[in-house]
């Protein structure tokens, strides 16, 4: 009953004319920022931050939060239509979203990712409403050993993410980790692999890396190859967004699993939506009876990750609001908004500022409904983007990537990084190395090193700490299971292959 | 020495009265070497309108994050010395040189200190189940070694702990986290035992008792925590550390302009309205002359460099 | 068709070189430390060896399977990357508009076909949209045009 009262209180705040307006503004801006490749949510929020000086803290947060989760809605659009992720969290959506678009099912993919996003966000918001204090408590049990175990599990799961050689995927994970190590080492202040460039002290920009490897490389590969005339005009009609019954049936469980994974990772400070999306993809591929469909337009491959990253977006507010601990740079910005207005986040926020807390949470819901209403009619417009001749589209996209990279950090160095990773990305395409594992290695690797080294200091050099701490031990055991299962399924797959092949040949011979 | 310097400054000021009077002849850019929404950025943004009103020129905050504030600092050190490009940075200006080699500027020569805007006090905190007094903490660390959290190597929180270890002889292992947030979490979860925190980082957790304050790192108690003893009271003389925000100008800037900016900033700092805005954000505002601030910077540069050598930090 | 997959041989060899290079730099320039207090050099040293090892495996595998000739292009990467480089070089000294013109004009040459009318229209449109979205919409602090000299 109390919950209902709080929800009503929150709705009262969220539905005030002013808050509704800023919520809409945030959602709209977020969608645009998400669609534009290269322009990250952090850069967008940083730029708009000064605006919030003059707003009420609740209103300011409602708008910034709208941009934050709106970006992830919009981010899948470019992934699906252009094979370049709008934000790093949507990179994995390229894997199956783009093949769907090539098969003329771009509208379906856009519609279904919007549904998945809404589903994931709703799931996250529900958790946020029901369990914030409980979850904040359990997040505290995760020390460095547990984080290391989680990262390890993520990387093991990731080695299966792309179709093709597992060796190559693994090599790309390692390369990604190495790129992640560039910059100042937090444990010793040694600057690694910076080649004397001062701006590299803080490491390589995630946006620059993702945009170079996925964006620039994709453009290089597509120039003079993509013909707009190839598009079947039938697929542009509004009714072409209607998913088949099979699509819907296949989507339920990936959405549920994706939302759970996303919610979990969102609550752990420092992990976030990108990792959640990747893991969700890896798990869907693992669980699927037909893993060979992944990478060729499997709808599960977009539904899981898109619900995961949106759920993570919402639950990321749990540590931020209830512990006062921001999970990412973007969340630190949100905390900054509160601090400016003299509101201290922490365990008492819910009781001391109920209007703010419940108003914000209910605004998430309002915002997600706005996004749903906003995005579905936009699908028709986005799909039409494919009819723009490529010789007009690609220079524009390239320009947006450049400005986006510049805006995250306000320095030309980020654009040079896009250049460098463009070269690397092109080389990787030529040599047929997958990009997604590199990106995940880049995100997870430095965290893994940091937590491993810290765990070793805290255990005074005892390696058994990873197996003695109960949560860590459970995660380690799960990682072992994933490994064993992987070996078993690939063995079985090979046996099935060898058994069926002669039969096929016979059949072919007989006809 | 001090009077001599002031005399020289006045003499130079008289030599070019036009420049200082005309200042500022155009819009002023204050470079903040941190991302928007950080403590420094917020303070600078609150200050800017007061300077705009005084100068009749726009005052733009330009965020140049990177290299732990070193990128923005380097940019200003190379800017034209006309007083139109200023730097607002933190005590990282004096701590970073102690551990980072090959800085692209000389902190003693390439920038002129204008004024110390304000500072944040640091407190030593422990978790819910930790000891109640600093003496108990030191005592128990000798029976069973403890862990200290920092917000990263070379940060103010790190130097605070190293100084504490050096002065108290407590048996403490330092563990570095990435930023103040994770460090506070490690105190909350009991993974580490002590952390030199700003009052705002400890925040609500302090009020709710999930984090206990053992001492204020300084000579006096602070207003917001009247019951917490200062380290001086507890017998640690010289165990004082605070994070400040100060303003700097590129070398070669006319001393008369430096004095004018100093006077105008200090005037804004005395404005009751400004005080009312920033005090809830933890800031204690200062009022220093350029000479005093320059001496402070010089003393701290030496102090932290010595401590880094003594404790073997960043080797 | 080649007898061996030379693409993978090259790829694997590059990985071996990178891995060994990383390990060499890490071992010589950074402290390796002990297991209890790992130095900054330990993790990258191990990863470098791992990368080189994976590279060797990829080469070995490639030698035993046939491969295709990769479709290498010279002009597409040259102009697309040239556009990015032009933007990077122009934005700080000259401002946003020249940088936009740089990336748009140079990268559209990758089509290997000049369409003067559509290119001019595109440049105009982008020079209008980008400042609207970024400078006026999002408040990005950058001058549109400037002259550094």
Describe what you observe in this structure:
The complex is a heterotrimer of chains A (511), B (315) and C (149). Chain A is an all-alpha fold and 511 residues long. Chain A has helices at residues 2-14, 17-35, 41-48, 57-82, 93-102, 106-139, 144-158, 166-180, 206-222, 245-267, 273-287, 300-315, 317-322, 329-340, 349-352, 354-384, 390-407, 412-430, 436-458, 465-468, 470-510, and strands at residues 183-184, 191-192. With 315 residues, chain B is of the alpha/beta class. Chain B folds into two domains: 2-120 and 243-311, D-Maltodextrin-Binding Protein, domain 2 (3-Layer(aba) Sandwich), CATH 3.40.190.150; 121-216, Periplasmic binding protein-like II (D-Maltodextrin-Binding Protein, domain 2). Chain B is built from twelve helices and ten strands. In chain B, helix 5 (92-99) packs parallel to helix 12. Chain C is built from five helices and no strands. In chain C, helix 1 packs antiparallel against helix 2 (42-63) and helix 4 (96-108) runs antiparallel to helix 5 (116-137). The model of chain C has no long low-confidence stretch (mean pLDDT 88). Classes of the chains: A mainly alpha (511), B alpha/beta (315), C mainly alpha (149). The interface between A and C is large, with 65 and 71 residues.
Question: How are the secondary structure elements laid out?
Answer:
The complex is a heterotrimer of chains A (511), B (315) and C (149).
Chain A (H helix, E strand, L loop, with lengths): L1 H13 L2 H19 L5 H8 L8 H26 L10 H10 L3 H34 L4 H15 L7 H15 L2 E2 L6 E2 L13 H17 L22 H23 L5 H15 L12 H16 L1 H6 L6 H12 L8 H4 L1 H31 L5 H18 L4 H19 L5 H23 L6 H4 L1 H41 L1
Antiparallel strand pairs in A: 1-2
Helix pairs in contact in A: 1-16, 2-4, 2-16, 3-4, 4-5, 4-6, 4-12, 4-14, 4-16, 5-6, 5-12, 6-10, 6-12, 6-16, 7-19, 7-21, 8-19, 9-17, 9-18, 10-11, 10-12, 11-12, 17-18
Chain B lengths: L1 H14 L1 H6 L5 E5 L6 H17 L3 E5 L6 H8 L7 E6 L1 H8 L11 E17 L6 H10 L2 E5 L5 H13 L3 E5 L3 H9 L5 E5 H9 L3 E6 L25 E9 L4 H16 L1 H7 L5 E2 L4 H22 L4
Parallel strand pairs in B: 1-2, 1-3, 5-6, 5-7
Antiparallel strand pairs in B: 3-9, 4-7, 4-8, 4-9, 4-10
Chain C lengths: L5 H24 L12 H22 L11 H20 L1 H13 L7 H22 L12
Helix pairs in contact in C: 1-2, 3-4, 4-5
